[in-house]
Amino acid sequence: MTSQRVTLITLGVADLVASKAFYARLGWQEHGAHEGVAFYQINGLALALFGRADLAADQGRAGAKLGTGAVTLAQNFATEAEVDAAFTAALAAGATALKRPEKVFWGGYSGYWADLDGHVWEVAMNPFWPLEADGSLKLPA
């Protein structure tokens, strides 16, 4: 089994109910019903929303102040129009615009938004990284 993998990404949130509603407005569907945490199945892994205080306690750091913004989650799209549509949908759901999508120095097109807790998401089109039919990314050799 390879150690070079991620199976679950957990975001600490201030208000689980509000965060679940935000991701629902983005069109994300919660996987099952779980007390105190929300799970979303995504291509080959899962995303979880977990109250910040509960997450810190689960990490063995009860009372720790968990930060945001030092990690960027990204969604890649096949076209600039898809990037624009995803960015617009995020703002309509309540996201904060950080950088509107634009052509970037490396030859692609990208923008950034933040969710209700300041977790940063990039929406991008990278012409050098074609997407699989299911939207997943496979880096070229």
Oligomer: single chain
Give the termini distance in whole angstroms. 21 Å
Report low-confidence residues grouped into runs of 5 or more. Answer: none
Largest sheet: 4 strands, mixed
Question: Strand fraction band?
Answer: 25-35%
Q: What's the β-strand tally?
A: 7
Could you tell me the mean pLDDT?
A: 94
Number of helices: 3
Give the % helix. 10-25%
* Topology as a string of helices (H) and strands (E): EHEEHEHEEE
General shape: globular
CA-based gyration radius: 16 Å
Strand order of the biggest β-sheet: 4-7-6-5
SSE-based structural type: alpha/beta
What brief labels describe this structure?
single chain, 141 residues, alpha/beta, globular
Please describe what this structure looks like.
β6 and β7 form a beta hairpin. The chain is built from three helices and seven strands; from the N terminus they run βαββαβαβββ. With 141 residues, it is of the alpha/beta class. The longest helix has 14 residues, at 80-93. The protein has helices at 16-25, 52-58, 80-93, and strands at residues 8-13, 37-42, 45-51, 72-76, 96-103, 109-114, 120-125. It has a four-stranded mixed beta sheet, covered by helices on one side. It is 22% helix and 31% strand. The mean pLDDT is 94.
